[in-house]
Amino acid sequence: VDWKTPPVNLTSCLLQNFNATNVTKLCPDAQCLFAFYGGETAYHKYLIVLQFFNLFMFFWLANFVIALGQVTLAGAFASYYWAFKKPDDLPAFPLFSAFGRALRYHTGSLAFGSLILAIVQVIRVILEYLDHRLKAAENRVAKFLLGCLKCCFWCLEKFIKFLNRNAYIMVRV
């Protein structure tokens, strides 16, 4: 294969030209597939569900990383606070040792708190999507109920963040 010139040009992946090119000779398993909305395959049927799953996992992992940072800092401060002889009982690297203890002993608690928060955040995203879709509607009752739900879930998210932060501190101490 001559690597200076690519074996595929831009017109070779058109569906009508794909089998006539040398791509199938160079790579026998190559296929010319296009992803678009509204198809009939299993991929198209579950595309929105997979996108919501991806969003949910993003929220869960982001909240887990934030929780891990909070527990690590709480562990570093607790190791200083509970040391009887301050210079002698302190670990050499308090943040690294607190990080290791957080990963070893508190991963499940962090994952569960992050899961609850991620569920609430996905519900808030769904409500924002519904609000965006109802912008053109003139139904005042639906807009009022949606506004109330958005406000309630915003308050619930802030409350859960507050509870999680204090619970992580208590778990670590």
UniProtKB/TrEMBL annotation:
Q: Which GO terms describe its cellular component?
A: mitochondrial outer membrane; plasma membrane
> What does the sequence similarity comment in the record state about its family?
Belongs to the CTL (choline transporter-like) family.
- Functional description taken from the UniProt entry: Choline transporter.
GO MF annotations for this entry?
antiporter activity
Q: Which reaction does this chain catalyze?
A: ethanolamine(out) + n H(+)(in) = ethanolamine(in) + n H(+)(out); choline(out) + n H(+)(in) = choline(in) + n H(+)(out)
Q: Which organism is it from?
A: Geococcyx californianus
Superkingdom classification of source: Eukaryota
| GTP-binding listed as a keyword | no
Protein name from the UniProt record: Choline transporter-like protein
* Ranges annotated as spanning the membrane: 55-83, 103-127
Its keywords, alphabetically, are: Antiport, Cell membrane, Glycoprotein, Membrane, Mitochondrion, Mitochondrion outer membrane, Phosphoprotein, Transmembrane, Transmembrane helix, Transport
Subcellular location, in the record's words?
Cell membrane; Mitochondrion outer membrane
Task: Tell me how this protein sits in the membrane.
Answer: Multi-pass membrane protein
